[in-house]
Amino acid sequence: MKRRNFLHTSGILASSLLLQSEMAKAFKLANNKLRIGIIGCGDRGTGLMRTLHSLPDLFQVTAICDVLDFRLEHAQKIANDKAVESYTNYQQLLKSKKVDAVIIAVTLSEHFKVAKAALQNNKHIYLEKAMTYNIPQALELVELKKKHPHQILQVGHQYRYTPLYFKVKEMIQKGYLGKVTQIDCRWDRNSTWRRPVPSPDLERQVNWRMYREYSGGLAAELLSHQIDFINWAFDTHPTQIMATGGIDNYKDGRETFDNIQVMFRYEKEGMVGNFGSTLSNEHDSYLFKIKGTKGMVSMLFNDGIFFPEKKAVKELQTVDGVTGATKIEWNKEGGIPIIAEKDKDGSWYALKDFHNCIAKKLEPTSNILTGATTAFCVHLANEAMYNNKIQHWKDYPELNSIYG
């Protein structure tokens, strides 16, 4: 049953993406080079620096900043350019005339403060996820951004920038999954999540993810990506938020849970979303399944499989009324591979979109409103989890004020 990719050629998807205008942002690029300052030079900040280096025609790292000397020294080695300015105070970096835009990769509790200062200093912003630590900060940042309409603020939910995720969003909107009722997501690891500390007095600065004063825990650091995709793909948000968890394995003084389960009810869509994460077993690793009456999509970061329900198979084989014109190429599990570009990771696509949005004055697909919606979800999940109390979106009427 040999044939070219079914989803690409048979008509199950239109010849051009429903979201073509959004995808165009990621690939049509201007020639001007953007000068970038990186604020926060931990694993994420330096990882993005390496991605910027892979796009030398679009970006030039001109400044770096971190409050920890050893991280700043490490970032200087990666930058490998004596002309790159180094700072320990982000306010000083923001005043540099050699910086057009900043990547903010500091602790979650500092996201709002640094992003606010960047807007006030007329810098474009790539702000790591989750957008803010809590709901009040998200609401204030949305209002502040309205006063700076010409500055781009993109939120770093990078995984949904891969072509696969645009294509799955289109499949959902065109009805090829049918009526979606269930979403099953996991992001598991077998790791303490702890980083080595050069000095005991730096414990909370280095391992900030483990302390509730600074971190939204697993819900913010991992599950927010999948939560964000569902909000974006269905243009929705949960109405009821339930969650539980605990410090079930690593009794090492951490405060954020190492084992969590979050369940969202999307009343308007008639969906239940299950989002789980543990640091004690990595067998499932990253799991993302969207289940509808006509079929299910199972996704990794760059690979996806569509599993049609039996009653949908005949319909798929007679797409556009051309019976037998092509043969469906099934994999050994009875699924149809969703082929999309997958030679780059999400950060590469996201940063290309960041550059293009600045050059063309376009709104990012992961913008301040989608970022705020996900930040709300993470905050309410943690409220439900730590207080053992179901949260309801309607009990926070201020959340809907940003969409008017």
From TrEMBL:
Cited InterPro entries: Gfo/Idh/MocA-like_OxRdtase_N, Gfo/Idh/MocA_oxidrdct_glycsds, GFO_IDH_MocA-like_dom, NAD(P)-bd_dom_sf
Domain GFO/IDH/MocA-like oxidoreductase: 167-297
Domain of life: Bacteria
Name of one Pfam family that matches: GFO_IDH_MocA
Record domain Gfo/Idh/MocA-like oxidoreductase N-terminal: where: 34-157
SUPFAM superfamilies hit by this protein: Glyceraldehyde-3-phosphate dehydrogenase-like, C-terminal domain (SSF55347), NAD(P)-binding Rossmann-fold domains (SSF51735)
Signal peptide positions on this chain: none
PANTHER family named among the record's database cross-references: BCDNA.GH03377, NADH-DEPENDENT DEHYDROGENASE-RELATED
Protein name as it appears in the record: Gfo/Idh/MocA family protein
Lineage, opening ranks: Bacteria, Pseudomonadati, Bacteroidota, Sphingobacteriia, Sphingobacteriales
